[in-house]
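Figure 3 (text version): structure tokens given as input.
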């Protein structure tokens, strides 16, 4: 029987915590809450299964550029990985296995999407309006992730195109690309993975590159049955591998904070291009004109060979307009195509969750972010948004495993939730002066990093030119800052009575 959208599920229940999203962060949040003895929480997921970005992205060749040993939960190592760098199907299977193993799956209400989360300052409760009704909660964890909303450029004439178009994050598997004339727009992380997969099938492939990325060789290999059996019998191999990968990423992070350190690597990669690409014009076209690390570093072994195939043409310009089935680049080149695939990334500077959250002053977060750029305290708490936490929020990203970052941040968040409960706190809000001082310091120290000074325009910088994404210090510093929830950073209201007049869950 379908649930009435207007049903108020919270009529006799107030949840301690409400988790929005069952991707890598939401799954970890639920597991960690259970471990701390929390059982009165609710988790909703808009889709039919867990997985987040690994559920949504199913394009050919989709995989992770962080080794599987580190791109996995610290509390759930796996010996099932078939490669050093896992592909999407295995990662999704892993997330589903972990959710089942820790009995999280039965707790998730699937096909239930958050429509609006509004703070009720009278009752000190969150009112959660969803596609399946309304809920009340004392605290909220927004685990919706930073990579959720694909973006497609609104090019002149797009409506006149008679062929098929789709974004890589919404791959249309019903379309057979065999023998088709295909245009790919963008050369980011997704494009360099799916281009080598479709190139052998298509009649012709035109790749529109606005900015040449840094593409480094990927040290990938198959593990094989014996390798998986060995890791299963000797867990120390897995833990040692994990530590080694983490150490190498720390070196990369040091270089990103100190761009001059990466200059020898840049020189070596450019020399390697002379071996990888014989055609001088193509080599010049794919040689980046900015410092290594300014934009996301990409890893692939089959991308450059695909660009050199006889049926592939790289256009070192963006696509500017469309006339029927003719796509036109910035330099005026015209190409007839049957299919356009958008490899144009995601809207990460303004996460969709901002459109759904109403703060204590009745303001929509997305409206505020348009004026001031997204900002948070340690990527977790927002101005005038009490009793709520954001996982992988603004200025918390370092070059590491998103899973590891989420775990670290969730330890801080759950420490805060425990204090709210143990001290009978009804309202906890980050102090404006603490938030402002933190973000001023973050922006000051970002100025010397490669993200800001590397000479590129990346998704780290929003339309205001402000770096809303990167963490300017080491991962160790981030972990230290997140190791303890400091109540002195927050304004606190102690609960004097059950203001909601409801039965506590």
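Below: residues designed for each position.
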């Amino acid at each position: 029987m379908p649930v009435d959208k207007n049903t108020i599920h919270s009529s006799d229940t107030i949840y301690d915590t409400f988790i929005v999203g069952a991707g890598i962060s939401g799954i970890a949040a639920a597991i960690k809450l259970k471990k701390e003895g929390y059982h009165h929480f609710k988790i909703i997921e808009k889709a039919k299964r867990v997985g987040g970005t690994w559920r949504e992205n199913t394009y050919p060749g989709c995989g992770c550029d962080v080794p599987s040993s580190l791109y996995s939960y610290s509390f759930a190592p796996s010996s099932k990985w078939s490669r050093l760098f896992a592909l999407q199907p295995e990662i999704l299977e892993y997330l589903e296995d972990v959710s089942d193993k820790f009995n999280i799956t039965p707790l998730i209400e699937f096909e239930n999407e958050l429509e609006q989360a509004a703070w009720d300052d009278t009752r000190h409760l969150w009112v959660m309006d969803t596609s399946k009704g309304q809920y009340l909660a004392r605290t909220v964890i927004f685990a919706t992730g930073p990579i959720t909303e694909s973006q497609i450029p609104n090019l002149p004439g797009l409506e006149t195109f008679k062929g098929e178009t789709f974004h890589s994050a919404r791959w249309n598997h019903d379309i057979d690309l065999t023998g088709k004339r295909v245009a790919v727009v963008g050369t980011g992380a997704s494009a360099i993975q799916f281009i080598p997969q479709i190139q052998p099938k298509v009649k012709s492939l035109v790749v529109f590159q606005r900015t040449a990325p840094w593409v480094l060789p990927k040290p990938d290999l198959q593990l094989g049955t014996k390798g998986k059996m060995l890791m299963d019998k000797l867990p120390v191999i897995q833990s040692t591998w994990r530590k080694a990968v983490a150490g190498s990423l720390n070196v990369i992070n040091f270089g990103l904070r100190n761009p001059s350190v990466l200059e020898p690597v840049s020189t070596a990669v450019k020399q390697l291009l002379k071996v990888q690409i014989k055609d001088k014009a193509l080599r010049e076209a794919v040689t980046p004109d900015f410092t290594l690390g300014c934009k996301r570093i990409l890893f692939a072994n089959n991308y450059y060979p695909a660009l050199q195939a006889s049926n592939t043409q790289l256009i070192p310009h963006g696509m500017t307009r469309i006339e029927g089935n003719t796509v036109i680049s910035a330099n005026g080149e015209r190409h007839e195509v049957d299919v356009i695939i958008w490899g144009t990334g995601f809207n990460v500077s303004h996460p969709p969750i901002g459109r759904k959250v109403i703060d204590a002053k009745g303001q929509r977060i997305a409206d505020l972010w348009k004026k001031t750029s997204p900002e948070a305290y340690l990527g977790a708490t927002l101005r005038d948004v009490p009793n709520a936490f954001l996982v992988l929020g603004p200025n918390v990203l370092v070059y590491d495993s998103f899973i590891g970052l989420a775990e670290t941040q969730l330890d801080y968040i759950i420490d805060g939730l425990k204090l709210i409960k143990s001290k009978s706190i009804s309202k906890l809000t980050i102090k404006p002066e603490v938030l402002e001082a933190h973000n001023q310091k973050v922006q000051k120290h970002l100025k010397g990093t490669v993200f800001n000074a590397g000479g590129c325009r990346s998704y780290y910088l929003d339309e205001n030119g402000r770096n809303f994404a990167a963490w300017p210090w080491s991962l160790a510093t981030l972990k230290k800052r997140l190791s303890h929830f400091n109540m002195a950073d927050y304004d606190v209201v102690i609960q004097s009575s059950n203001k909601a007049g409801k039965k506590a869950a």
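The chain has two domains: 9-149+347-494, 158-219+248-342.
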